[in-house]
Amino acid sequence: FELRQCMWDWNTMGPGPFIGFANFEEILFKDDRFWSVFYNTFMLSGLRIVFELATAIILALLLNEVRKSWVKRSVQTILYLPHFLSWVVTASIFTLMLSPSSGFINAIIKSSGGTSIYFLTEKNWWTVIYYLLRLWHDTGWATIVFLAALAGIDPELYEAAWIDGAGRMKQMFHITMPNIMSTAVIVLMIQLAQIFRLFEPVFVLQNPLVYDVSEVIMTYVYRRGFVNGDYDYGIAVGIFNSLISLILVWTTNTIVKKIRKESIF
Q: Would residue 84 count as lying in a domain?
């Protein structure tokens, strides 16, 4: 149905003349802005996945070494709580913290002799803040998943390795990491399936001064389709977006299947 819709030149009054695949031709060959937005999406989502997986694995390994159960549970709860906050609330918290006039981050900078930094209106700082916001909001979930995977490793494997003279580092690389790789693959596939569906976390932090680095495919669809009224083009971009996501997930699954002899589907 969506494919059929994007083949007509829609306006606020309904479908206009038939245009066929003209929208897809514009996406691929004429719309330079789309490819800039595509790059932003890939970088903001792709690097975020790398940072999040690495941070979650490290936190899970550290928490797994904590012997006092109440400490472990408390830290898990603290890490996971941000995941329950909406993106609007999360963005509001960060905006208040980073305010150039009343935020405590800038208060610390000014008390140290520096000048206020407009974190959310400077392109380089906006990108850093975005990654930090995503890590704070999402890493707790992945950490809990990896902790569950670590809890499922047979303790006898570590005992046998210790008897054979393997130290903690060797145990980690030869027992722990191989046993959580299946979980890492599942988490990666879940994240990749959503890599080009990025919208709300970016939208709530955006402002016109940082569109060059913050505009992603879904916000571009929103502005092009709903704000500018170019509905058929917005639908075409959405279809193209879904197709690219499908290809990415399928390719990743194929590579994992060849390397590890296991896959999601």
A: yes
* Domain limits for position 126: 46-180
Alpha helix (H) residue ranges in the chain: 2-5, 22-25, 32-64, 69-80, 87-98, 104-111, 123-151, 155-163, 168-171, 177-193, 200-203, 211-214, 217-221, 231-260
Q: Tell which residue, 151, 236, 138, 230, has the closest CA to residue 187.
A: 138
Give the C-alpha distances (Å, rounded to integers) separating 9 from 4, 12, 22, 218, 231.
11, 10, 10, 20, 8
Q: How many residues are given for the chain? A: 265
d(CA 44, CA 133): 12
CA 125 to chain centre: 18
Q: How far apart are CA 147 and CA 76, in angstroms?
A: 9
CATH of the domain at 125: 1.10.3720.10
Structure-derived torsion over alpha carbons of residues 231, 232, 238, 244, reported in degrees to the nearest 10: -160
Count of domains forming the chain? 1
Residue 78, in any domain of the structure: yes
136 within some domain: yes
pLDDT in tens, 195-229: 888 899 999 999 999 999 999 988 988 888 777 76
Answer whether 252's CB lies under 8 Å from 191's CB: no
Mapped onto helix, strand or coil, the DSSP state of residue 14 is strand
User: For the ranges 37-46, 101-110, 233-242, which has the lowest average pLDDT?
Assistant: 233-242
Q: What's the number of CA atoms in the CB half-sphere (13 Å) around residue 246?
A: 6
Place of tokens 């709903």: 226
Residue appearing with tokens 């610390």: 108
- Is 35 contained in some domain? no
